[in-house]
Specification:
The chain has 167 residues and is mainly α. Helices cover 78% and strands 0% of the residues. The protein contains 6 helices and no strands. Helix 2 packs parallel to helix 4.
């Protein structure tokens, strides 16, 4: 097995386990992991599967929820977005991180509105759902940006120092 693939998969699995540690609501590395996997795993199937499998394994520990399909769909889309990053720089990562966080907010809260029965199924209910979710959005956005910085910087350092020795 390719040492680079193994290292990236290991990073994704280990970091995804941080979901089982106490954390503020929506402050998790999952969106950043999907982008990271998409950016560094050249095989698209692998780039899509590893973050989803990591999420699934952590969900086995913390439990499944009613919005699991919306969340997993977002993970897949973010992996594809990560795969589209041609030049890995702060600007591109920031754009993908912000876009991914917004996409996650829109899709998952639409799913809440549509399926959880908490809001009337009309435009007013949809707007109310999005408004009620705003306090959680900043944690999603901040955690995605922070974890993207950690993952991309950390992997770059590992790649420069250790992968050249191992290859």
């Amino acid at each position: 097995m390719n040492i680079k693939l193994l290292l990236i998969a290991l990073i994704i699995f280990l970091v995804s386990l941080t979901r089982i540690l106490p954390h503020p609501p929506n402050f998790t590395p999952i969106l950043a992991l999907a982008i990271f996997g998409g950016a560094f795993l050249t095989n698209k199937r692998t780039a899509l599967c590893i973050p989803v499998i990591a999420m699934f394994l952590s969900d086995l520990i913390i439990g499944f929820h009613s919005q699991i399909y919306a969340v997993y769909l977002c993970i897949i889309v973010l992996s594809l977005l990560g795969n589209m990053i041609e030049k890995r720089n702060i600007l591109n990562l920031g754009i993908v991180g912000i876009s991914g966080s917004l996409l996650f907010f829109i899709v998952t809260n639409f799913s809440v509105w549509l399926t959880d029965g908490l809001y009337p199924l009309n435009l007013t209910g949809l707007m109310q759902c999005y408004i009620m979710a705003i306090p959680f959005f900043h944690n999603t956005l901040i955690s995605t940006i922070i974890f993207l910085a950690i993952l991309f910087t950390g992997y770059s350092l590992i790649e420069k120092r250790f992968l050249k020795i191992l290859n």
